[in-house]
Structure formats: structure tokens, C-alpha cells
Specification:
single chain, mainly alpha, Sodium/glucose cotransporter, two-stranded antiparallel sheet, 25 helices, globular
């Protein structure tokens, strides 16, 4: 059976499973559409939460950024630390209290806690901006995966993915999405770990990728550590040492913190904790989600590192002997005739990989042509520049099994896993958007007397419009999937996380402070991002060049969410201190959320 047919069978079977589950778990009420009837067990909710959150950025893009970062792979560990650390904050500081409040959405909590429809409306705006930005990365992941494995254009892949999401998200709601995400988690974790185990055995002889990462390089007979070998290969080709630390400490700290508090403030993740029966289950759900996430995140650094070595040694075959510049790089003839290298032309056809024989010698020289150390070598050998002109970060995980010459069924499984990761998160985001529009905007402000049937219809229609918008924006994303997602985390860090923290832990913050804080955090972060990336990511509209030399105090756009959060907190406290304190019943509400009724009665405290 050829690879294309195998891909169709595996991916088609996974889609049939998702749609079948959605039909079986079709939402019949607003409670089921928004919160799955609040009857999801903690372990299952933890698995669904992991799938909801482990998006295309985690499955497809994160290891690619680790593999191909110009500054080396070490500093990209911030993605791992920030995204997993955020779940600790979520489990301890937010999830149980929000579940105890007992409502369906984040804006509903904000509106009730700050006794203001205006606060609820601002929260809706923040939620939509965050979710739309986030979903762009998912749609890109869908397009990239389809482009390679179904051999269609990236745009066509987007349209197919949007149709699949529409089929099971619009009708199933949170109930259908929850059980679909459980299946998607099983698919994506198996698809991620199986090829990683194969490749770890090939390169290090260790079947556990995390241990293989710090183990020895197998072809050396155990004399050379794997990471030492990788450093040798990339440095010899003029690239930055893979394990080097090259970013500023301030930017690293701010970026990690932005990802952490952004994770804790993601609306589509928070609403998952409204689906469990009890308050204690919300905390357990967060704990289980962290366990399920860790199964992938402990493997990702190994996947990225091994993918980088595999790619480099494919284009410089002699690099495996430590002689990357001692022999010839890969030839065009080999690319066109060797079946083991057919993946190169296949990925070239997707537009995510590009090469050009600039000097006409029949070989593809892959090296860092901006490295002063390589100038003399290039001049001596007649090289006219790096001829591997494009390697998209988002192709690395998907291409890794092909580069490593793994069996066809593994390649097909990776395709299904990438799609599962992207589609599961896209569905959660679209539900968050539709809930904000139908429940918080229409029912909360425009038409409070709308019937349950009418609200359910409005939710489905708004989700349909959200899918169309997400698909349109996904046609021209501002960066790699993980980069786009990092921007969404920054926006969540600057807006949702601070207002939830203050709403739960401060009785003094009033509606004026909350509204001002959210607006300042949102505007400051959005303006900083758009200065470097352009208005709504339209090419040519950025006013500043997106380079470290131009960043304010060396803080990148993806790291600015931490600054936005500080501005949010500061503004809220200053404005609240200058205005009237919240009503007594609101202060009592805050107290009841944090402290169970009757606590301390036995001891008198």
C-alpha cells in the first residue's frame, strides 16, 4: 500500500471516530453546550483539557522551534517551563475557585464579581481577541499537516480542517468536544511518542527519548554524548552551538512568566473546569491534565534535538563521522533518485522546504552563510550562499519520521496526531468564542430574555462565523504556529489572568479598577505586538523592525504579556483606591468563593 493511501485510511478513520463521538454526545441544552452538563469525571476532564491545550503549537511547532532556533535550542526551553508551570498556577489559584462560583464562562464571572455589564463586555472583547489570535496558529497547523500528508495545498488543508471542526464542534458543543478531545488525546500522544521512541533507539540506543537526550551518541560506540555530537555538527557548519544560552536574562524571565500566567488565563482552558461535578474535581482535573501534558512535554526536547541532527546529517552525510566539511554535501542526483530521500521533494512541493543549486555544482550546500567563520571556507570552495533556503519550523515533527526512514504506518500516525492536536484546540477556542458571543454578549447584554433554544441556536451560529473568521486569518498567519500562540498567551497574561486573580483574592478591587486594568493591559500589549508585527498581521503595516536591537529594554513582543499584566494590576489597584469600594454583598461573595461557609467554626478562627 502506498503512503498516500495509508495516510488517507489512518486520518479518515480518526475523523470518522471524532464525528461519531460528536453525534453520540450531541448537546441538547445550553448546560450541555457550554459545560457538558457539569458531569465529566476528573480523569477524563484532565485528558480532554490536555488535548484542548496541547495544540498544533505543542505537537507540530514547539519541537521545530527547539530544533531550528537560530540562537540555539536551549533558550526555547522557556516554552516547556512556561506552559507546564502555568498549570500549577491554574490548579492552585484559579480552577477550584472558579468552579465553586458555578457559572459557565469567564466573562460571566467577571461581570458578576465586578457587578458590571461593562466589565463583562470588556472581558468578552479580551476573550475574543485572545481566542482569535490563538486559533490562527491551529488553523496553520491544520493546513501544514494536510498539505504534506494529503498532498493538497495549505489553503485547501485549511478548508478541509474547518469543515471537520464545524461538523463536530457546532453540533456537539462542550459535551461533544469533551469526549472527542479524549479520543484526540489518545491519538496525539501515541502519534508523538512512537516515532520518538524509534528515533531515540536509532540515534542513542535508548528507548526512552528523555534519557536518550542526555545519553551517548550510538554510532560513536558510547564515546561521545549525543548533545556534544549535535553541538559539534552545527558549530562546524557555522551555526550557534545548540546548547548555547544567547538571549537576555530579562527577556527569558518575562517570556517564561508570560507563558505561565497566560496559560492560567486562557479562557478556553478555564471553561474546562466548569464541566466537573464538584469543586475538588476541578483541582484534580488540573493535576491529571498536567500529568497527561508531561507525557508529551518530557519527550519534546529530545524530538527537537534529534530532528535537528537528522536533518543536518541528511544534507551533510559525512557529518555522522564528525567531518561535515571533509566531504561532499547531498547531491541533486541523490535527491531525485534515492527513494530514501523522496521526502525532500515531497516537502518541497508543500512550500515548507526549499533549496536551490546557486553555484551549479550539483550539490546542496547547507551552512550558515552569515557566519564570519564560514566566509573563508565558502570562498575557497566556490559556495555562493546557503542553498537550503527554507526549512519551516512547522514541518520538523511531521517530517522527522520520514527523515529517519520509519515505517509508513508511523508516518500516517503522525499525520493523524498533528491533526488531532490542532483540531482539538481549535474546537475549544471556537466554543469559548461562541459562548462569549451567545451567553455573555447576546443573553448577558442584548437580549436577556432569549429562550434556551434561541441561545443554543445563537451559540451554533456564532461558532460557525468564528470558524469562517479563523480560516480566513489562518490563510496568512504572522509566524510559525508556536509564535502565534505565544502572542495569544501574552494577551491572556495581560488581561484575563490579572482580573481573575484580583476578583478572587482582593475584596477591594471594584468595577472601575477591573475595567481600567483590563483595557490598559489589552491596549498596551496589543499596541506593542502590532508595532512589530503589523495591524492584524497585515504585511507591511509594522512600524518597527522586529529585532532584539529595537525591542524596548530587550523585551520581545511575545514576552510583553508580563509587562501588560504588571500594568493591569497596577492600574486596577490605583483606580480602585481612588474610587468607591465594592458593595458589601460583593465583598461577601469574594469571601465565600475563597473560604467555605463555616470554615474555622470548630477552632474559633
Amino acid at each position: 500500500m502506498d503512503q498516500y493511501t495509508l495516510n488517507l485510511l489512518v486520518v479518515g478513520a480518526s475523523f470518522a471516530l471524532y464525528i461519531g463521538i460528536a453525534i453520540w454526545a450531541r448537546a441538547g441544552s445550553t448546560a450541555e453546550f457550554y459545560a457538558a452538563g457539569q458531569g465529566v469525571p476528573p480523569v477524563m476532564n484532565g485528558m480532554a483539557t490536555a488535548a484542548d491545550w496541547m495544540s498544533a503549537a505543542s505537537f507540530i511547532s514547539m519541537a521545530g522551534i527547539i530544533a531550528l532556533s537560530p540562537a540555539g535550542g536551549y533558550q526555547q526551553s522557556a516554552f516547556l517551563m512556561g506552559w507546564t508551570g502555568g498549570y500549577v498556577l491554574l490548579a492552585l489559584l484559579l480552577a477550584p475557585y472558579l468552579r465553586k462560583f458555578g457559572k459557565f464562562t469567564v466573562p460571566e464571572f467577571v461581570g458578576d464579581r465586578f457587578y458590571s455589564k461593562g466589565a463583562r463586555l470588556v472581558a468578552v472583547i479580551c476573550l475574543i481577541v485572545i481566542s482569535v489570535t490563538y486559533v490562527i496558529g491551529q488553523m496553520r497547523g491544520v493546513g501544514v499537516t494536510f498539505a504534506r500528508f494529503l498532498e493538497v495545498s495549505t489553503d485547501t488543508g485549511l478548508y478541509i480542517g474547518a469543515a471537520i471542526v464545524f461538523a463536530y464542534a457546532v453540533f456537539g458543543g462542550m459535551k461533544g468536544i469533551t469526549y472527542t478531545q479524549v479520543a484526540q488525546y489518545c491519538v496525539l500522544i501515541v502519534a508523538y511518542t512512537i516515532p520518538a521512541i524509534f528515533i531515540s533507539l536509532q540515534i542513542t540506543g535508548n528507548f526512552l527519548p528523555p534519557l536518550g537526550l542526555f545519553g551517548s551518541y550510538a554510532p560513536s560506540g558510547g564515546d561521545v554524548a549525543f548533545l556534544t555530537k549535535l553541538d559539534q555538527v552545527v558549530v562546524e557548519l557555522g551555526f550557534t552551538q545548540y546548547t548555547a544560552y544567547t538571549t537576555s536574562t530579562l527577556n527569558m524571565v518575562f517570556f517564561t512568566m508570560s507563558l505561565m500566567i497566560g496559560t492560567a488565563g486562557l479562557p478556553h482552558v478555564i471553561i474546562r473546569f466548569f464541566t466537573v461535578p464538584r469543586v475538588a474535581d476541578a483541582r484534580w482535573s488540573a493535576g491529571w491534565a498536567l500529568v497527561f501534558i508531561a507525557l508529551l512535554y518530557t519527550v519534546a526536547p529530545a524530538v527537537g534535538s534529534m530532528a535537528r541532527l537528522n536533518l543536518t546529517t541528511t544534507f551533510w552525510p559525512n557529518a555522522v563521522a564528525g567531518e561535515a566539511l571533509g566531504g561532499d554535501p547531498i547531491s541533486l542526483e541523490a535527491i531525485n533518485t534515492d527513494p530514501n530521500l523522496s521526502w525532500i521533494n515531497t516537502w518541497k512541493n508543500t512550500g515548507l522546504l526549499a533549496f536551490e543549486d546557486k553555484n551549479g555544482d550539483g550539490f546542496i550546500q547547507y551552512y550558515n552563510d552569515k557566519s564570519p567563520a564560514m566566509e573563508a571556507v565558502a570562498a575557497e570552495r566556490g559556495w555562493t550562499g546557503n542553498e537550503l533556503t527554507k526549512v519551516d519550523n512547522d514541518m520538523m515533527v511531521l517530517a522527522n519520521p520520514e527523515i529517519a526512514r520509519l515505517p509508513g504506518w508511523v508516518i500516517a500516525l503522525v499525520a493523524a496526531g498533528g491533526l488531532a492536536a490542532a483540531l482539538s484546540t481549535a474546537a475549544g477556542l471556537l466554543l469559548a468564542i461562541s459562548s462569549a458571543v451567545s451567553h455573555d454578549l447576546i443573553k448577558g447584554s442584548i437580549n436577556p430574555n432569549i429562550s434556551e433554544k434561541g441561545e443554543l441556536l445563537a451559540a451554533r451560529i456564532s461558532m460557525g462565523f468564528a470558524i469562517v473568521l479563523a480560516t480566513w486569518l489562518g490563510l496568512n498567519p504572522p509566524g510559525f504556529a508556536a509564535q502565534v500562540v505565544a502572542l495569544a498567551f501574552g494577551l491572556a497574561a495581560a488581561t484575563i489572568f490579572p482580573v481573575l486573580m484580583m476578583g478572587i483574592f482582593s475584596k477591594r478591587i471594584n468595577k472601575e479598577g477591573a475595567i481600567a486594568g483590563m483595557l490598559v493591559g489589552l491596549i498596551a500589549t496589543a499596541v506593542y505586538i502590532f508595532l512589530y508585527l503589523g495591524w492584524f498581521f497585515i504585511p507591511g503595516t509594522a512600524t518597527l523592525e522586529n529585532t532584539p536591537a529595537n525591542w524596548l529594554f530587550g523585551i520581545s513582543p511575545a514576552s510583553f504579556g508580563t509587562v501588560g499584566a504588571i500594568l493591569n494590576f497596577g492600574t486596577a489597584y490605583i483606580v480602585s483606591g481612588m474610587t468607591k469600594e465594592p458593595p458589601r454583598e460583593i465583598q461577601d461573595l469574594v469571601e465565600s468563593i475563597r473560604v467555605p461557609k463555616g470554615a474555622g467554626a470548630a477552632t474559633g478562627h
